Structures are given as C-alpha cells and as structure tokens.
Amino acid sequence: TNGLEFDRPGGGLELFSSLDGMFGSLGAMPLRDGVAAGGHSWIPESVAPNIENYEHQSPLLFLYRRHLDAGAEGAGRTRGGGGVEQAFIPWGVTHGRASSHMNESFPKSQGQWGGNPGSRSFFRIHRQTGIAARLAGGEVPERSEEIGGEVMPLAYKGPTEPLGPDDVIEWASPTTAGWGDPLSRDVAAVLADVARGDLLPETAGRVFGVVYSAEGDIDPAATDSLRRTMRAERMGLYPSRDPSPPDP
Prior knowledge:
Blueprint: E1 4-7, E2 13-16, H1 51-57, E3 60-67, E4 84-90, E5 95-98, E6 122-127, H2 131-136, E7 150-151, E8 161-163, E9 168-172, H3 187-196, H4 201-208, H5 220-235
Antiparallel strand pairs: 1-2, 1-5, 3-4, 4-9, 5-8, 6-7, 6-9
C-alpha cells in the first residue's frame, strides 16, 4: 500500500508511509541460496526501518514481522531469498484509511534451469478479528493463518478503505526465484532448512521429494524413490538417469 492515515482521538491527522519495500530479497545463485530480506541488488545499502521506529512515529502496534516460510515459491536446487510478512493494527486511534493497495496478480521473478518462480507481494485487511480482546487475553497471532477474521477483497488501486480498531493490516514482500530443479536440491540443505524452522517437513516432501524417517532423519532410499516417482509423473516416464544439471 502507498500509505495509511489515522484520525487522532483529540483531533488531527496522522500519516504513515511504509518503506518496507526496501526489504527486497535476492534470487538464487548457481552455487548458493539467495539472501532473505537482502535489499535490492541495484541499491546496495538499502535498509528497511525497524518496527520500533514505526511504533514510535505512528499510531501502530506490530503483531509480528517474520520471513516467509520456504515452500514451492522460490524452490530450486538453490532457493530464492525469502520475503518478509508482517501484521500490525491501529493503536491509540479510532479510525483510519488505507489508500492505494497494489496487490500483484502473478509472480514477477521467474526461475532458471527448472527453478520455481518467486511469490507475489500482497496487502490485506482482516476485518472482525477480535484482536483487542485476544491481545487482552494474552493471545498474539504470529503468522498469517492465525489472524482470522474476514479478509477484504482489495482492488489493485483504490478505492480508499476505512480502518477501525478491530482491523489487522497484513503486508508481505515476495520471495525471489529459485535456480535448478527442486528435486536436485542437496538433502543436507533441505534438512538444514527444516532444522531452522524455515521449511515444514511435509513441504520438504511435497516440493523437494525428501522423506523423513520416524526418527526425524532423512530416509535416503525413500527419498531417491520419491524423487524418481515425482520426475516420472512430470515427464510421463521414468528417466533413465538423474537429469540434474552438472555442478556449475
């Protein structure tokens, strides 16, 4: 969104313009993963503001700011840099408005050598969330699916949408594209993604064809079998050899 404005209880107008587009993220490279929230390649010293700066200068309370989960978006032999998602609410004000929305309808970054495209950026308004009562009860949403309420359908540009004290505003910058076939990703790299909490085990199987044993370790035989099966489903036949590209 281009900007938010809020009505102060005692009168006056408070404006908020987000600079979080400076988060950016850098795409996957042949020899290593992209950089999450790595800024923009054409602005080497770009920096997004801290949450505390926003809360000090504007009538906002942030619920969370976190990297997007690693998934099919940006998947590849090396992964694209993860984007950022965050949610915040009006704080100390009763009414506000959101201007231009600018949601994307398709990802802008395309993968190379079989890598998946990145994700889309988005701006959302959740109505009827009961957020004030939930915060008072010690409940703080930590990711998008925990916000609840009714998500407003927003046009690409306007009209201006009203904001109230029970609304949650959500925004995300995109994950960038991957490089190479996700089924050729090193299983040790997938294991590290899961261990860091960047990737869910079920997503590791669905996207990268990696199977975990009951003990929580990677099952090499089951992983090799699943990857061959997934390739066969894509190609219509079982490949006679591993179609992964050679090392760069």
